[in-house]
Design goal:
Elements: H1 15-24, H2 28-33, H3 37-49, H4 55-67, H5 71-82, H6 90-101, H7 105-114, H8 119-131, H9 135-143, H10 149-161, H11 165-181, H12 192-202, H13 206-219, H14 224-237, H15 240-253, H16 262-272, H17 278-281, H18 290-302, H19 306-313, H20 321-338, H21 341-355, H22 364-376, H23 380-390, H24 398-410, H25 414-423, H26 427-430, H27 433-445, H28 449-457, H29 463-478, H30 482-495, H31 499-517, H32 525-534, H33 540-554
Length: about 550
Amino acid sequence: MLLSRAKAATGPATVEEKEKKKKKLPKLEDFVAARDYTGAVTLLEFERANKKNDIQTAMWISYCYFHLGDYKRCLKEYTEITEMKGAPPENWNYLGCVMFFLGMYKESEEACAKGNKSKLQNRLMFHLSHKFNDEKKLMSFHKNLQDIVEDQLSLASIHYLRSHYQEAIDIYKRVLLENSSNGGSKKEFLALNVYVALCYYKLDYYDVSQEVLAVYLQHFPDSTVAINLKACNHFRLYNGKAAEAELKNLADVCSPSFKFASDLIKHNLVVFRAGESALQVLPPLIDVIPEARLNLVIYYLRQDDIQEAYNHFKDVSPTTPQEYILKGVVNAALGQEQGLNDHIKIAQQYFQLVGGSASECDTIPGRQCMASCFFLLKQFDDVLIYLNSIKSYFYNEDQFNYNFGQAKAATGSYKEAEEIFLMIQSEKVKADYIYLGWLARCYIMNRKPRLAWELYLKQETSSESFSLLQLIANDCYKMGQFYYSAKAFDVLERLDPNPEYWEGKRGACIGLFQQIIAGHEPRETLREILAILRNTGNAQVEYIIRIMKKWAKDNRVSVT
């Protein structure tokens, strides 16, 4: 048994060990460099609790809360700093920035006016001028911008907000190029790839957006903004499930206390899930996320609650292409539903404004807008010019095919129209009278009247089925398809004893009789003609039947 040691098991720590322990103590700079703002706040709050409640500590705490996205807490901290003795004048500018992020634009302007003149103050006032739609002030602050990174990035963001995406991309790429060629750290400017990707997303280049975004995600795979944008690209390229899977990855890597962009994620999940929980999630976000109101209006449109969609959007003055497009859609839907020509004219103007603009004319939405404008004007040849140019992007899209089919049929291309209509899978569209009417007309014009008649037989009795019957009766008559025309006029006459329906039935029966005589229709059909004629109590019936029976007797055709 060993009862003695060469040296003590425990004892005073060596100088080297003390140095190691000192190195292990967390420092504020380390937390900030690692973007661990929760850790930084915890350290700073500990220091403040230990009577280190100076302005410097308070400003660092405010800085961390800002980067955590907890703007309300940040506002409280900066407001308290303004009341401290010796508070620096730039604190008012910082307070203005927080108010800006909270949407308190008027208060932000007032706070900013109390701050010292600086590049930050100019940038903030530049953005506030944009929010207030004050073009004169905007240009004034624009002149003060310098050729430095912060000012150029501020200018790029204004280009983005004004839908000048290519101009924004040019600035971001120039900044990236200049800073890499001047020996700057590429990693320091990696986040600009996210901004470039966002611009490409807005330009509908979703695959390009993904490629640019991948550069940033290789270094920061847990970035909230980047993962959210990746999910949005997946939504556009694939479907809502693929997008939701990306956001699930974000939820897995984030802690429960993580608040940044939580509202944005909740909003996007509603979109990815095709409007699920829209009425619970979107209304509180209307003044937080600009797209929330747009998506709420879209939800109402999908629920066929057009009046509610109009009520939520009627007081909005559109500023972006998306808002102009949605304004046009809402007005077109309301005008068509209620027969209000004024709303249809307003819709035409909105569509033409977007489709004719330099920034949108060559985009897919821009061409859709021009097609919609001409559609409302019933200029279907022009509609087809625009729809043909983008049809490869919407091969299996039911709403696109619905409009494309109507335009084809309206220009007499019934064979192509029939093929397009039959590609539609949506049961809601296939149950719509407009769809049924156009498809029936295509069948008739393509000499398939039996299929049109079968469409009618599947319908329940209603005013729409009555209209479909009228369409079949008249179109078949016009095309010389008298058998189905006679059947349709017979049903119409029994439903409504209108003299016009008797005249139509009489003409169709006589026309079919002529076709039988000419050998274009089977003789056995004569029996059905006589049965149809007997359903009418008109005095002319007996005379017509007598002639037909005489011909049948002479030609040995059985009609009994």
